[in-house]
Amino acid sequence: MKYWLVKSEPYKYSWDEMVKDDTTYWDGVRNYQARNNLKKMKKGDLVLFYHSNEGKEIVGVTTVIKEYYQDPTTKDPKWVVVDLKVKQTLKRKISLKEVKEDKRLSDMNLIKQQRLSVSEVKKVHFDIIIRKGNEKEL
Q1: What structural domains and CATH numbers belong to the chain?
Q2: Which residues sit opposite 86 in a β-bridge?
Q3: Which residue(s) pair with 47 in the sheet?
Q4: Strands, E, within the chain: which ranges?
Q5: Predicted model pTM
Q6: Strands 80-95 and 23-25, how do they pair?
């Protein structure tokens, strides 16, 4: 199993909308590195859901339920999507500031490649985020 992070601007597609929909295809990726990461996702992989621009926080976890296929929003065959299903809303949102302040997360792709919309997450980083997200408010 691998671990990932996807970014969405809440005004375009928020965690609340993801929860309401329960499943969705992750479309609109137009960066080759992010696209390649979508292609590496396997059924059962876990995916952190991050609100970018507004909020700048990790808010929930999804799971990959269908591996990559042609993005239905474009006829260009080089772009793909995966299907995601809601797994868990974090009890506490984890802000980008908090991630940056935690030395254990200093080499997380969220920090190193801030503009990348789909990135791999090391298991150790995923586990830290999940523990933090399931703690009570600080």
Answers
A1: 3-133 (3.10.590.10)
A2: 62
A3: 4, 62
A4: 3-8, 23-25, 46-51, 57-70, 80-95, 118-121
A5: 0.96
A6: antiparallel
| DSSP alpha helix (H) spans, the chain | 15-21, 32-40, 96-101, 109-112, 123-133
The Cβ of residue 21 has, within 10 Å, a number of other Cβ atoms equal to: 12
User: Could you give the angle at the alpha carbon of 4 between the alpha carbons of 116 and 25, nearest 5°?
Assistant: 85
Q: Which amino acid is at 127?
A: D
Write down the residue that tokens 């920090």 correspond to. 111
pLDDT for 138 equals 52
Each residue's pLDDT tens digit, 6-53: 999 999 999 999 999 999 999 999 999 999 999 999 999 999 999 999
Cβ atoms of 42 and 2 within 8 Å: the answer is yes
Structure tokens at 51: 């609100």
Instruction: Specify the pLDDT at position 34.
Output: 98
- How far apart CA 109 and CA 3 sit, in angstroms, is 12
Overall size of the chain counted in residues: 138
